[in-house]
From TrEMBL:
Role summary: Purine salvage pathway enzyme that catalyzes the transfer of the ribosyl-5-phosphate group from 5-phospho-alpha-D-ribose 1-diphosphate (PRPP) to the N9 position of the 6-oxopurines hypoxanthine and guanine to form the corresponding ribonucleotides IMP (inosine 5'-monophosphate) and GMP (guanosine 5'-monophosphate), with the release of PPi.
Keywords assigned: Cytoplasm, Glycosyltransferase, Magnesium, Metal-binding, Nucleotide-binding, Purine salvage, Transferase
Catalyses which reaction(s): IMP + diphosphate = hypoxanthine + 5-phospho-alpha-D-ribose 1-diphosphate; GMP + diphosphate = guanine + 5-phospho-alpha-D-ribose 1-diphosphate
This protein's pathway: Purine metabolism; IMP biosynthesis via salvage pathway; IMP from hypoxanthine: step 1/1; Purine metabolism; GMP biosynthesis via salvage pathway; GMP from guanine: step 1/1
InterPro entries with a match to the protein in the record: HGPRT, Hxn_phspho_trans, PRTase-like, PRTase_dom
One GO CC term, this protein: cytosol
Full protein name: Hypoxanthine phosphoribosyltransferase
Length: 175
């Protein structure tokens, strides 16, 4: 495909890992009273949807946030909340579901915002972790795949809103 240098993670690898993560979340959240899973739009939507197919719990509430900090392939280091949660999270176990943790700045700022709302616990599930790019000290609690310092597209991740619908994760090749 044009602008895909190579496939980094195949559809089959993603499906296998999503099943493992769903089973892990089933165990981790089985005894939680009223957990809420918060998907970070737009990138995490396919990942969240597919992982939840393997979570065998019925007492989880779902909500979404839409935040922005990227322009093209670079982070602007400015976090804009475009869509906020619709329910309070005070006293609740919250799991943020992200597509990628890169510099960590966006996730750190998001966690700071949510911490002010006094959740019982706040954890992070990310599909991709790119530790080489980290500029702040932050780690996800659950990681799908650790990847090298490459700009990736597909499976929800985009370049200027394109390539989100690829069923694999590829390395973006600029022209």
């Amino acid at each position: 495909m044009q602008n895909v240098e190579r496939v980094l993670i195949s559809e089959a690898e993603i499906e296998k890992r999503n099943k493992e993560l769903g089973e892990l979340l089933t165990k981790e959240y089985a005894d939680k009273e009223n957990p809420i899973f918060v998907g970070v739009l737009k990138g995490a939507q396919p990942f969240m949807s597919d992982v939840l197919k393997h979570v065998e719990l019925v007492h989880i509430e779902l909500d979404y946030m839409r935040i922005s900090s990227y322009k093209g392939t670079e982070s602007t280091n400015e976090l804009r909340v475009l869509l906020d949660l619709t329910v309070p999270i005070e006293g609740r176990d919250v799991l943020i579901i992200e597509d990628i943790v890169d510099t960590g700045q966006t996730l750190k700022k998001l966690m700071d915002i949510l911490e002010l709302r006094n959740p019982k616990s706040l954890k992070v599930l990310t599909l991709l972790d790119k530790p080489e790019r980290r500029t702040v000290e932050i780690e996800a609690d659950y990681v799908g795949f650790t990847i090298p310092n490459e700009f990736v597209i597909g499976y929800g991740m985009d370049f200027d809103e394109h390539y989100r619908t690829l069923n694999y994760i590829g390395i973006y090749k600029s022209e």
